[in-house]
């Protein structure tokens, strides 16, 4: 034991404990390649939900031992009712940060009562220049020299939430929708896990709950 110069015992200080990571809930609708990137990054994913049954993303989650569920809007009287059921299922499993990984439904207002300010999405084009469901097609139609992989918060608008970060991706003269999407997704698979790791460690104050 170390001692002070005055002869009294000096108590060793325990190292500071890191802040606990926030539980992540991932919402999916299809293949789930961004989900797989998050799983491979060993992030604390505690729940994966889909608006469609039988999609590959659910298989990826189940293989990783993550709880899954399907919330098909056709099974509920309204989209609002479905969003409340989804939010409550996520909360029961300790989700504090929601990540949309190819999730193809807009949220209704009740979902923001649960998770407003703590929903993150990826978008395959610069924002606010190219919002909407078909960003790759819109970029190619506009003839611009570059697009971007964008990570942003989700709000009540269509791709209007605050941008967290974006990385430029060049558009080549011979690009097709498929070739450009492949290059953008490669950036997303690297960028999204990095951003989410920072968020779950509490470095982004807006997402504190």
- Overall mean pLDDT stands at 89
- Level of helix content? 25-40%
Instruction: Please outline the major beta sheet.
Output: 7 strands, mixed
> From N to C, what is the helix and strand string?
EHEHEHEHEHEEH
Low-confidence stretches: 1-19
Which descriptor suits the 3D outline? globular
Q: How far is the N terminus from the C terminus?
A: 41 Å
Structural class: alpha/beta
- Please count the beta strands (DSSP E, at least 2 residues each): 7
Report the sheet-strand fraction. Answer: 15-25%
Structural features:
disordered N terminus, 209 residues, alpha/beta
Describe this structure in words.
By secondary structure, the protein is of the alpha/beta class. It is built from six helices and seven strands; from the N terminus they run βαβαβαβαβαββα. Strands 3-2-1-4-5-6-7 form a seven-stranded mixed sheet, with helices on both faces. α3 (79-92) packs parallel to α4. The protein is globular.
Quick summary:
The chain is 33% helix and 21% strand. By secondary structure, the protein is an alpha/beta fold.
Layout of strands and helices, then pairs:
Blueprint: E1 23-28, H1 33-40, E2 45-50, H2 56-63, E3 67-70, H3 79-92, E4 95-100, H4 109-115, E5 119-123, H5 135-142, E6 146-153, E7 163-170, H6 177-200
Parallel strand pairs: 1-2, 1-4, 2-3, 4-5
Antiparallel strand pairs: 5-6, 6-7
């Amino acid at each position: 034991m170390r001692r002070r110069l005055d002869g009294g015992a000096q108590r060793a200080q325990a190292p500071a404990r890191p802040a606990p990571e926030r539980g992540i809930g991932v919402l999916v609708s299809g293949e789930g390649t961004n989900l797989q990137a998050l799983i491979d990054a060993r992030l604390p994913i505690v729940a994966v939900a889909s608006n469609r049954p039988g999609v590959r993303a659910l298989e990826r989650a189940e293989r990783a031992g993550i709880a899954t569920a399907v919330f098909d809007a056709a099974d509920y009287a309204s989209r609002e009712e479905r969003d409340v059921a989804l939010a409550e299922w996520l909360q029961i499993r300790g989700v504090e940060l929601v990540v949309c990984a190819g999730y193809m439904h807009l949220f209704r207002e009740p979902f923001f009562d649960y998770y407003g300010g703590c929903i993150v999405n990826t978008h395959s084009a610069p924002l606010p220049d190219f919002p909407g469901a078909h960003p790759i097609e819109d970029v190619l139609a506009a003839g611009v020299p570059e697009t971007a992989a964008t990570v942003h918060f989700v709000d009540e608008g269509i791709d209007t939430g605050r941008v967290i970060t974006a990385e430029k991706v060049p558009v080549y003269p011979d690009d097709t929708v498929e070739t450009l999407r492949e290059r953008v997704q490669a950036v997303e698979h690297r960028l999204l896990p990095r951003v989410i790791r920072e968020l779950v460690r509490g470095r982004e104050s807006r997402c504190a709950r």
